[in-house]
Write a structure and sequence with these properties.
Elements: H1 2-17, H2 22-34, H3 36-55, H4 64-73, H5 93-99, E1 109-112, E2 115-122, E3 127-133, E4 142-144, E5 148-154, E6 157-159, E7 162-164, E8 169-172, E9 177-178, E10 181-182, E11 188-194, E12 198-200, H6 204-212
Antiparallel strand pairs: 1-2, 2-3, 3-11, 4-9, 4-12, 5-8, 5-11, 6-7, 6-10
Length: 214
Amino acid sequence: MRLNLERLDLLIAQYVSGALPAPAHVLIGSHLEMRSSAVRFARTLEYLAGRALNDNEPSAMSSRDARLRRIFASAAPADDSPPLTPKEGQLPRSLRGYTGSDLLDIPWKTKLPGLRQHVIEKSKDVETSLLWARPGRALPHHGHHGLELTLVLGGEFHDHRGNFGEGDVSVADETLDHRPVAGNGTPCICFSVLFAPIALSGSTIRLLGDILGL
């Protein structure tokens, strides 16, 4: 889990700097809504970035008056009030804006027995989706051809790295082969951002059982 946490810290730093692709920005923003400790870390990074800018010698700005006019004419910034705590059936505010609906209104489609999916966005560069897995449901053993970020919205899942509960983010890449299993208590609901296809792996008998949901 230590490596996953280190990767997550890097993603939060990229979020603060505005360097993440839009779907990953939504995922990390949703994570910050769900985890106050992550918010404190992000605010510390913002403070340090502000200090670094303040310590730099100012440089002359070209077209100063024209730029100021554009700033004053621009729309007001987004509401900076503390995010709402997600409730049952309610997605984090960042994710709700991205999906255009709340959790209770998601039009789920059955992907495999005991596994439902709602694809939000799909292109050659990224696939984003919501996943619902019944308690105890295992996903087929698989590896990754690139980065996948998974935010747990409800319930929990576990693999050989440990448990991932509500608000946790799993960071997976080419170095990871795993078999995620939903916890036994409640369904596991996740938001997934996939930047490259996955590849099924493991024994044929186990894969067949996982595909059929046995």
